[in-house]
Write a structure and sequence with these properties.
Helices cover about 30% and strands about 15% of the residues. By secondary structure, the protein is α+β, with helices and mostly antiparallel strands. The protein has a five-stranded antiparallel beta sheet with strand order 1-2-3-5-4. Helix 5 crosses helix 7.
């Protein structure tokens, strides 16, 4: 009697092509889009085409991943989300620090943060939120030269061992599907 492992085992005599059919008991989460982030191919901090937050408003909403456009700020999906629905609130103006915003920009920045939370509540019913800004590279900002605030929906049990052990995040919703749901629930 052989065990399931022995039945599927690759022997020295097996051709290499048979190796791809061996069931090793693992499921794979393929996330090739994250390789740009892992390998350090991050966007430039320069204003203009090199800055993703300066470039996004020049595209149509779907291509730019834009959820909502305001007068001085906009809401965009995070290309490397922690959870489905993770959005960023950005001023159109290329400024690095929260204290560089004008009074009008600050008011709209806060208003869009509140509206993003409400839209996420309607679209995906999270149990909580992380709101925050990383000011400067040393604080963890991936694009330090262009201010942006994270709005991350949270659910009980949404963080597991994968991000800690395997540097992998399982996301049950496609980025475009999350964007579409937010747009439909934006008021």
């Amino acid at each position: 009697m052989t065990t399931p492992y022995e039945e599927n085992a690759v022997t020295d005599a097996a051709p290499e092509s048979d190796f791809t059919r061996v069931d090793d008991g693992f499921q794979r989460l393929w996330t090739p889009h994250r390789m740009a982030y892992i390998s350090g191919e991050r966007p430039s901090a320069d204003a203009g085409e090199g800055c993703p937050f300066c470039a996004a408003p020049g595209k149509d909403d779907a291509d730019g991943l834009i959820v909502h456009r305001g007068r001085s700020c906009f809401v965009v999906m995070n290309l490397f989300p922690y959870n489905p629905g993770h959005v960023l609130i950005c001023p159109y103006r290329h400024v690095a620090s929260y204290i560089d915003l004008t009074v009008a920009e600050t008011a709209e920045f806060a208003d869009l943060t509140q509206r993003a939370v409400r839209a996420l509540q309607r679209s995906s019913r999270p149990q909580g939120f992380n709101l925050g800004m990383n000011q400067g590279s040393v604080a963890g900002a991936g694009v330090a030269a262009h201010l942006h605030q994270h709005v991350v929906p949270r659910w009980g049990g949404d963080a597991n061992f994968l991000p800690i052990i395997a540097q992998t995040k399982a996301l049950p919703t496609l980025l475009e599907d999350a964007r579409r749901s937010l747009v439909e629930n934006w008021r």
